[in-house]
């Protein structure tokens, strides 16, 4: 696997580790975070379908690694709609983009 790789959820434990590993290879690594981007990072909220598509169309990744999720179990129970948007609808939008462009998706 080499090419232009986008990490969704680069500020989390898995996303940070993926970034470190991929930077040591032949990848151009693009990182996205939900809030407070560091220099070189892009904003992407998995609950925002339009924002996801705009970001993907602008960055044109060949590989998309989804390391972000709504994973606080108690909050998932009390905020079901948000959980569904982040964990189902967001990845669905990524998959639709990938199907149309030929990009590869890895969803953790």
What can you tell me about this protein's structure?
The protein is an alpha/beta fold and 108 residues long. Helix content is 46%, strand content 21%. The protein has helices at 13-23, 49-59, 73-78, 80-101, and strands spanning 3-8, 27-33, 42-43, 63-66, 104-107. It has a five-stranded parallel sheet with strand order 3-2-1-4-5, sandwiched between helices.
Assembly state: single chain
Distance linking N and C termini: 16 Å
Total strands: the figure is: 5
- Name the structural class: alpha/beta
Coarse shape: globular
Helix content: 40-55%
Uncertain runs are: none
Strand order of the largest sheet: 3-2-1-4-5
Q: How many helical stretches?
A: 4
| Rg measurement, Å | 13 Å
Biggest β-sheet description? 5 strands, parallel
Mean pLDDT over all positions: 95
User: Roughly what fraction of the amino acids lie in strands?
Assistant: 15-25%
H/E element sequence: EHEEHEHHE
